[in-house]
């Protein structure tokens, strides 16, 4: 096209006219310019005559002549490459040639030339069009009137297309004259003619003219013209502008329309309908108003799709003009005048679901601007939306869509967006508005609502969503400020739970007898459930006894469901009677689900156990678990609740009775030994690389979560393993004892031959055993019942190579390495610096396993750390010398505590100090919380007493550890036996007798007394000192938490708490640990939640065994002394400081999905750098303030004691 003549230009004009004329009908039907462009871009796909158009033929010929040689050259190159095996088919050839052609110099030159030519052609067409318009001006006016009557049936629509009408192009002088003629002061005929000309002009020319600001004012005022034809023409011009102009132009048109509506509603001359009268859509004035609001709303819906491409100030103008319009309120002339309808009502009528608002709040770009303006200038709009449900019941009698549903959906949108909810919803003003009808019902105030049940259900839905988020929950519980919340002030949570209890008691006359009452009850119970499912929420709700009310309602529903007759085949299944019975069963299950969620926290589990509905709740949970049904509004299912239950004896028994444990073990066996039959045939499983294959990891962690010591004791206590002479290959384990028999204690060929994957399955069992043995009570139980050490030693002997010279070395393989690690672990006691554990991995090189294997005791010396030197008795005696004066001793307590916290005092000094301190406390009647009675610790009194095998093994372990620490002499074992027997006899005097199906309540204390053993070591094995100290200590409230055996079935506990089988260390200490962890280390708390594991279970294990095997002896002593001097709440700080120390490792192991194993086994090696003095940092940073402000201080225990 380098030689482009006039003939060529005329020819191209003719071809282009032919193309546009042929597609005129398709373009005319397009709703907007953008759609018309899309039609042209996809014309080849939709028009079968596309390749017959002369313009298309011309372009094809031009491209071939220009790029033909380039295409041929690239094709030859690719063809030769394919013949040499470098290509990969026809599709690749086409793609490659196309790419190279478009990158060529010829292509760029062609596109540049073609663009220049087409610009000339199009410009010529436009100029010729203007000439034609000027010559036929009069004729054009008449024709245009006919076109408007034919094309524009809906004058307010913004769907007009620029292709179905003619344009009149005006210069600046003509536009200036047009603006003058549109002045409202001009005669009507002049304005009508000027408006006609304006509608035929291109909107872009009008909006870019120098007089646009004056024209805009004239148009805004003219929209109120009483002549509807004239105002409709303005709306048509606005609609055309919206559909064909960019944002920088349309924003001014939109703000003009919004300003007109604002003035309309503020004007006293216009007749605005009232709420009581409703809207008459046959009124011409109302029709005109609705047309304007509709055009405004249609632009609101479309503008979010392209305002991000323009400066933010444009969007701010649109948003602010909208909010200003919606906030308009005309002053009432009389105080008793009916409320007039505001703009928001008309907008809600035309956009029932507030689609425009959803789009504005969808993206952060616009949402930020909306929220900022709402907060700074238009807060009243938020209250207006909350008030709508109570004021608009009679607003739209012709509309089936409830305004309450509209408002609920808008609030739901805000709730689902954290940023929006924080700024708009989490305020006392909003909560007060939501609770207003509830306050009225509680106070007996009359309510003017047609359907209060529906309205209250909507309120409950929003409150539940608020309570599901941390900030919202804090607002409901503490009124927005936890630290300044007063004890006597009733926050939203108190109002909600009071209302819920009244609903359950059916003590609200307005709502009694309604069909929707069960749904209303369920909605508000669910709000409470969002609160009592957290530790802090349960603390607030406990005084109201909501668990008892829900349990009573469940028992009532259960008794009704039992009366339902069995369905008879052939009867009508949809009769009213059957429907009623189904409703009763659904209500019963709903209440069970609500009760079940108390098990989400340690203290909540105790409350659930006290209701007597624990077994039914677990059975219900298992039925839903079996059907793969998700927990309502819970991402992580039932994992947390199962782990909480498994940490207690009644919970473990309930899990077993429900069939949950059987199902879990069956699933474990399926993935470990069987696998899916269809997959094994088509995809044989690969040889596992990890000790526990990834396919088994989930089942492994589920079993670890389940087998806490209370669960182990209930499930296998005094139970022998089968040890059968023969096992069928199809025989599947169904309980924990079977798992131990088939996977851990493989002491016969029959067991080995019964496994398809012997090595993998046995390693799985040994890894599980390694985790279980980290709980010292579990270790002692397994050792006493199954002689675990001997089984492992025998297996190592069988793995020894026999040589001509005699027994050789143990064969090093995966199983022998695992057994060696476990044998060292279970026979060495101590913290990370006091024992050496062999690794469980093989190294590369000539010496893959540098650790010594053994098949008999004693342990090789390579596993024994250097024993600490005996403590120096000469230091720290200045505090002990003050014992002659109680007042002087108490004066030194703060200094003693500070030195304990900082780790400055030696162990021997600590022993003397805690002895003096406990003596002084026990002599003070106000400090003696428990009455202990008289007991004479004479050895003759315990002649007939006997110790269990678990206690005997624990004594041996304690003495072995004490000798390693140089604290005990050779005859210490007998003294420790006497101490434990005296303690047993002494504490039995304060125990109540009871009949229970729980094993832990049928005999003595289930575990070993680690606290008494720790005191025995602190006292360097002195029997009399130890007994005296324990007797004095037992009178203090502190003993309830440090000495677990102290409150076993104790008369000092309420009978239902004693019968529950749940220790205060769990429902009190562990409960507050979870509560404090969530507040201070939210990432760690979330990590536990995502792992399906609970801080309470692992902390119960740590505290029960006094951190034995997790901390070195010096740190254990400092932990005990700190709690004695400063109070039992320091055992909470202790656990929190451990979590703080391990925070990064906890987050990492959450990602690798082995957090449970890490906390029980691995992290021992990471505690080498941990010191009890770390608590001091937490104490000084405000932990004590938090505990006191949220009433978590351990002085709350008396409510659980007599």
UniProtKB/TrEMBL annotation:
Superkingdom in the source lineage: Eukaryota
Pfam families: BROMI, BROMI_C, BROMI_N
Domain BROMI N-terminal as annotated: residue spans: 12-138
Subcellular location: Cell projection, Cilium; Cytoplasm
Domain BROMI middle region: 173-383, 400-754
BROMI C-terminal Rab TBC-like domain: residues covered: 772-1179
GO BP terms, alphabetized: non-motile cilium assembly
GO cellular component: cilium; cytoplasm
InterPro entries associated with the record: BROMI_C, BROMI_M, BROMI_N, PHAF1/BROMI, Rab-GAP_TBC_sf
Keyword check for Thylakoid: no
Transmembrane segments: 889-911, 1157-1179
Assigned keywords, A-Z: Cell projection, Cilium, Cytoplasm, Developmental protein, Membrane, Transmembrane, Transmembrane helix
Role of this protein: Required for high-level Shh responses in the developing neural tube. Together with CDK20, controls the structure of the primary cilium by coordinating assembly of the ciliary membrane and axoneme, allowing GLI2 to be properly activated in response to Shh signaling.
Name of the protein this chain belongs to: Protein broad-minded
Organism encoding this protein: Chelonoidis abingdonii
């Amino acid at each position: 096209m380098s030689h482009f003549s006039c003939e060529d230009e005329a020819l191209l004009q003719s071809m282009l006219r032919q193309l546009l004329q042929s597609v005129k009908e398709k373009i005319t039907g397009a709703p907007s310019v953008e759609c018309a462009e899309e039609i042209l871009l996809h014309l080849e796909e939709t028009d079968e005559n596309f390749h017959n158009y002369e313009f298309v033929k011309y372009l094809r010929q031009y491209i071939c002549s220009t790029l033909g040689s380039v295409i041929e050259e690239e094709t030859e190159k690719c063809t030769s490459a394919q013949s040499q095996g470098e290509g990969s088919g026809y599709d690749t050839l086409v793609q490659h040639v196309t790419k190279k052609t478009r990158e060529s110099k010829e292509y760029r030159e062609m596109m540049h030339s073609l663009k220049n030519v087409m610009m000339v052609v199009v410009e010529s067409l436009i100029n010729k069009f203007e000439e034609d318009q000027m010559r036929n001006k009069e004729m054009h006016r008449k024709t245009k009137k006919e076109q408007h009557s034919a094309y524009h049936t809906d004058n307010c629509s913004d769907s007009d297309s620029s292709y179905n009408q003619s344009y009149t192009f005006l210069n600046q002088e003509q536009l200036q004259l047009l603006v003058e003629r549109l002045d409202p002061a001009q005669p009507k005929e002049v304005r009508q003619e000027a408006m006609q000309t304006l509608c035929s002009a291109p909107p872009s020319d009008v909006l870019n003219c120098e007089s646009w600001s004056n024209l805009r004012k004239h148009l805004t005022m003219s929209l109120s013209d009483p002549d509807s034809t004239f105002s409709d023409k303005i709306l048509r011009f606005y609609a055309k502008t919206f559909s064909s102009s960019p944002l920088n132009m349309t924003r001014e048109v939109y703000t003009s329309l919004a300003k007109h509506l604002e003035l309309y509603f503020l004007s006293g001359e216009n007749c605005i309908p009232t709420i009581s009268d409703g809207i008459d859509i046959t009124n011409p004035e109302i029709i005109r108003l609705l047309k304007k609001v509709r055009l405004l709303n249609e632009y609101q819906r479309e503008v979010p799709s392209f305002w991000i491409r323009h400066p933010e100030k444009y969007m701010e103008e649109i948003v602010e003009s909208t909010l200003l319009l919606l906030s308009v309120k005309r002053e009432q002339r009389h105080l008793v005048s009916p409320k007039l309808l505001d703009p928001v009502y008309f907008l809600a009528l035309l956009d029932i679901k507030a689609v425009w608002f959803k789009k504005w709040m969808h993206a952060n770009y616009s949402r930020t601007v909306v929220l900022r303006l709402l907060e700074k200038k238009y807060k009243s709009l938020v209250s207006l939306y909350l008030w709508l449900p109570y004021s608009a019941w009679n607003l739209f009698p012709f509309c089936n869509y409830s305004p309450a549903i509209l408002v609920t959906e808008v609030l739901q949108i805000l709730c689902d967006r954290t940023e929006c909810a924080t700024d708009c919803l989490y305020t006392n003003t909003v909560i007060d508005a939501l609770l207003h009808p509830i306050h009225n019902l509680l106070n007996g105030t009359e309510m003017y609502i047609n359907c209060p049940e529906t309205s209250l259900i909507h309120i409950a839905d929003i409150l539940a969503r608020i309570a599901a988020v941390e900030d919202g929950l804090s607002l409901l519980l503490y009124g927005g400020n936890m630290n300044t919340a007063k004890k006597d002030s009733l926050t939203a949570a108190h109002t909600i739970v009071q209302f819920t209890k009244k609903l359950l008691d059916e003590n609200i006359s307005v709502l009694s007898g309604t069909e929707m009452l069960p749904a209303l009850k369920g909605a508000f119970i669910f709000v409470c459930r969002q609160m009592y499912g957290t530790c802090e929420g349960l603390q607030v709700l406990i005084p109201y006894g909501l668990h008892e009310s829900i349990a009573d309602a469940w028992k009532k529903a259960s008794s009704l469901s039992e009366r339902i007759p069995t369905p008879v085949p052939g009867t009508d299944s949809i009769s009213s009677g059957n429907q009623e019975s189904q409703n009763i069963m659904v209500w019963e299950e709903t209440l069970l689900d609500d009760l079940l969620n108390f098990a989400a926290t340690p203290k909540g589990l105790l409350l659930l156990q006290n209701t007597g509905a624990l077994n039914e709740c677990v059975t219900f949970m298992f039925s839903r678990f079996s059907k793969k049904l998700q927990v309502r509004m819970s991402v992580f299912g039932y994992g947390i609740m199962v782990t909480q239950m498994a940490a207690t004896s009644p919970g473990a028994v309930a899990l077993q009775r429900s069939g949950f444990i059987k199902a879990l073990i069956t699933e474990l066996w399926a993935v470990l030994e069987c696998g899916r039959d269809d997959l094994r045939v088509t995809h044989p499983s690969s040889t596992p690389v990890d000790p526990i294959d990834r396919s088994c990891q989930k089942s492994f962690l589920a079993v670890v979560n389940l087998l806490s010591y209370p669960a182990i004791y209930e499930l296998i206590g005094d139970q022998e393993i089968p040890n059968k002479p023969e096992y069928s290959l199809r025989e599947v384990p169904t309980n924990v004892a079977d798992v131990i028999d088939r996977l851990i204690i493989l002491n016969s060929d029959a067991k080995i031959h019964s496994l398809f994957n012997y090595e993998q399955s046995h390693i799985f069992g040994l890894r599980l055993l390694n985790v279980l043995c980290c709980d010292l009570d579990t270790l002692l139980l397994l050792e006493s019942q199954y002689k675990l050490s001997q089984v492992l030693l025998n297996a190592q002997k069988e793995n020894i190579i026999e040589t001509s010279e005699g027994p050789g070395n143990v064969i090093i393989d995966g199983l022998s390495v695992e057994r060696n690690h476990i044998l060292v672990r279970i026979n060495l006691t101590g913290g990370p610096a006091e024992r050496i554990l062999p690794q469980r991995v093989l190294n590369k090189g000539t010496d893959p396993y540098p650790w010594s294997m053994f098949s008999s005791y004693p342990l090789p010396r390579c596993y024994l750390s250097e024993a600490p030197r005996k403590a120096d008795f000469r230091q720290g005696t200045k505090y002990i010398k003050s014992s002659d004066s109680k007042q002087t001793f108490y004066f030194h307590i703060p200094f003693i505590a500070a030195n304990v916290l900082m780790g400055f005092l030696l162990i021997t000094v600590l022993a003397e100090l805690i002895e003096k301190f406990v003596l002084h406390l026990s002599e003070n009647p106000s400090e003696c919380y428990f009455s202990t009675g008289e007991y004479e610790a004479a050895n003759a009194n315990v002649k007939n007493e006997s110790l269990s095998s678990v206690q005997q093994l624990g004594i041996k372990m304690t003495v072995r550890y004490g000798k390693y620490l140089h604290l005990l002499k050779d005859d210490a074992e007998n003294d420790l036996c006497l101490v434990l027997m005296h303690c047993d006899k002494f504490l039995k005097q304060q125990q109540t007798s009871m009949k229970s199906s729980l094993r832990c309540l049928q005999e003595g204390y289930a575990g070993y007394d680690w606290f008494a053993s720790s005191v025995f070591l602190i006292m360097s094995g002195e029997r009399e000192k130890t007994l005296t100290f324990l007797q004095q200590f037992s009178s203090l409230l502190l003993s309830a938490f440090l000495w677990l055996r102290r409150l076993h079935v104790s008369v000092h506990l309420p009978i239902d708490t004693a019968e529950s089988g749940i220790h205060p260390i769990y429902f009190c200490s562990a409960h507050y640990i979870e509560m404090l962890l969530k507040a201070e280390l939210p990432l760690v708390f979330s990590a536990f939640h995502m792992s399906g594991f609970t801080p309470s279970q692992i902390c119960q294990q740590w505290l029960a065994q006094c951190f034995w095997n997790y901390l070195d002896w010096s740190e254990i002593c400092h932990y005990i002394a700190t709690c004695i001097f400063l109070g039992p709440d320091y055992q909470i700080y202790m656990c929190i400081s451990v979590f703080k120390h391990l925070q990064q490792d906890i987050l990492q192991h959450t990602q690798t999905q082995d957090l449970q194993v890490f906390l029980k086994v691995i992290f021992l090696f990471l505690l080498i750098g941990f010191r009890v003095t770390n608590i001091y940092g937490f104490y000084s940073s405000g932990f004590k303030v938090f505990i006191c402000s949220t009433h978590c201080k351990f002085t709350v225990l008396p409510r659980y004691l007599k």
